[in-house]
Write a structure and sequence with these properties.
Blueprint (H helix, E strand, L loop, with lengths): L1 H17 L12 H4 L5 H18 L6 H30 L3 H14 L4 H47 L3 H30 L3 H15 L5 H20 L8 H13 L2 H14 L6 H28 L3 H14 L4 H21 L7
Amino acid sequence: MPSMRLQTSLYLLLCLLLLPLLPACSLMPTQQQALEGFSPGTLQQVQRQSAELDRLQNLAAVTPAQQQQIKRLRGDLRRFERNTVRTASGLEQQGDWRGAEQVFQSAAAALPDSQLLSAAQQDMDERRQLREEQLRMELAIHRGEQLLKDAEAYQLLRQLKGPGPLTWLELNAYRRKCRASAKELQRYAQRALERQDYALARRGLQIAQRLYGDDDQREDIQRGLALANRQLRQVKRQPVKVIVDNRAAVELRQALDAGDLLGARQQLHQLRQKSPRHPQLPSLQSRFRIQLNLRIETAIKRGNELYSRGDIDGALTVWRQAEILAPDNVELLASIARAEKVLQNLRDLSTPPSTKF
């Protein structure tokens, strides 16, 4: 019908006219996408601060004012690094691994030589790789369980069709699938045993054992199952009294004695991971919290004294050092923001009007 063709032509013409107005779609990431988690202005400022810090540090002679500027720039860059790690950690906890990776990549583009960012990203990559390994093994377990469910259906087909070439080919193809699935599960289970994930390793080996049937490969599976069962029984047998590694507890106590709270925090984390039921863990945790609270209270008080005497830079330095230990302390963050605003106002007042634009 002519009217139908005319309507179709008008529709196509309208689409062509509206096409330039639609948002552009591309498989290549845009510049804004590459700067995930940060505004372009923030990254440009960090790059300028890093370049200025390098310039000042390479000077043959540094004035007191330049020394203060170096300290200020270092503090700003450290805060940027901590904010980056905190942002990426939050995305990771939400399951947005890609977003966390983009945050690190954007920050690394601004600070390519940052050891803190490099170490934090490497730690996240290791956690992501471990999680991927676990998910892939769970998928392999699911495929193996499905093959075991199919076994009954293949037996019924053989009974319905009787012996013959087609039945033989179908059963052989099914057995090859079972064997391939069992080998895959065995590989995943071996890696799970190496990282001491005994429960997941046992699940995979049990299914692999059933998929192999009477195959001689079952000896390897039996050894793996024996190891996993032995370790799991040991955990059940000792719900309270467990074998602990005292090295982390000793190093934590030494760090607390020396007042090294950053080192103590790291040792405390290791002790929680390795020996969550360590008999000394509660007392060491309490001691760490007491020392940390005292350190933060002292830093806040000392910073307030410097601030009241007009030494804004000195107060800011004290508060920033304390912020490393307590990045979420509301009082510290408010004090730092107040001091930074005062210093910015002073810089604006000291800048000649002709150079502000």
